[in-house]
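Input chain follows. Return structure tokens only.
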Amino acid sequence: MATLYVRNFPDELYEKVKALAAERRRSMAAEVIMLMDRAIQSESPVDRHLQALERIAERRRRNPQPPGAADTLTLLREDRSR
């Protein structure tokens, strides 16, 4: 297994990781490995963006605009053309 050394690790961050490790009854090394693993496995920004767009589209499907309501895109274009 590889060894990783980190220089100039911020003291404040070190204390936070140390507190988390103690809370979770892990060693500092184990806690850092868990935190890094979670960070790497988390979704990419593109995935989060696509999910947000899907949620917006779903809300629009569930709550359509009432007939005759102003379309925001039309309002924006009208405002820009002034």
